Amino acid sequence: DTGVSQDPRHKITKRGQNVTFRCDPISEHNRLYWYRQTLGQGPEFLTYFQNEAQLEKSRLLSDRFSAERPKGSFSTLEIQRTEQGDSAMYLCASRTGTSGRQGEQFFGPGTRLTVL
Amino acid sequence: KNQVEQSPQSLIILEGKNCTLQCNYTVSPFSNLRWYKQDTGRGPVSLTIMTFSENTKSNGRYTATLDADTKQSSLHITASQLSDSASYICVVSETSYDKVIFGPGTSLSVIP
């Protein structure tokens, strides 16, 4: 399977714990995006990378959230001191750096986080 | 403020019937508009894409229309199937492609 993969698919944690999610984009894609999606809503932008550089962060990304893409390939999203309001689906997407496919982002299956 | 709105919020139709979903946007500058299908618990998958110069685009039983003057789009589903039950999300891109605005989605349920 050469699509975007995310791990884990589901995570249940207690409030106050730290969690880390991983995203493996399509191999030739140099743009990688993180989104958060709550029930009944569309995805909300969190941050994106061009190669290893984090180019933009949303105001939604509080100081408890950190994302990295150290080698320009896979990315991790860490949430420290989780709160119940962090419960959501975390989606990763990637795309080519050119205008190929008119900027289409390909999404992974998401990681469903539940904070108890 | 760049926004994408969708209607209805949810829709229930009988298998075999047609339906039309609406999307209004205020995004500017505008590059393209996509409709995504998102099955429950899965990531969105692109159905159609249209640039400002395109009026209609089909993908099997899905037909999308775009009126760039009124900034409205619709997604028409013909002869619905149970597998069409999903959330349909309208996504508008600015010219940079890195700025994409997602609508809240329309939840479609197709019942036998």
Structure write-up:
The complex is a heterodimer of chains A (116) and B (112). In chain A, strands 2, 4, 5, 6, 9, 10 and 11 form a 7-stranded mixed β-sheet that branches. The mean pLDDT of chain A is 91. The relative contact order of chain A is 0.33. Chain A is mainly β. Chain A is globular and about 40 Å long. Chain A is 0% helix and 48% strand. With 112 residues, chain B is mainly β. In chain B, 0% of the residues lie in helices and 56% in strands. Chain B has no helices and 11 strands. In chain B, strand 6 and strand 7 form a beta hairpin. Chain B starts with a strand and ends with a strand. The interface between A and B is medium-sized, with 27 and 24 residues.
How are the secondary structure elements laid out?
The complex is a heterodimer of chains A (116) and B (112).
Chain A: E1 5-7, E2 10-13, E3 19-24, E4 31-37, E5 44-50, E6 53-57, E7 65-68, E8 75-79, E9 88-95, E10 106-107, E11 111-115
Parallel strand pairs in A: 2-11
Antiparallel strand pairs in A: 1-3, 3-8, 4-5, 4-9, 5-6, 7-8, 9-10, 9-11
Chain B: E1 4-7, E2 10-14, E3 19-25, E4 32-38, E5 45-51, E6 56-59, E7 62-67, E8 72-77, E9 86-93, E10 100-102, E11 106-111
Parallel strand pairs in B: 2-11
Antiparallel strand pairs in B: 1-3, 3-8, 4-5, 4-9, 6-7, 7-8, 9-10, 9-11
Offer a few descriptive terms:
A: 116 residues, mainly beta, four-stranded antiparallel beta sheet, 0% helix, B: mainly beta, six-stranded mixed beta sheet
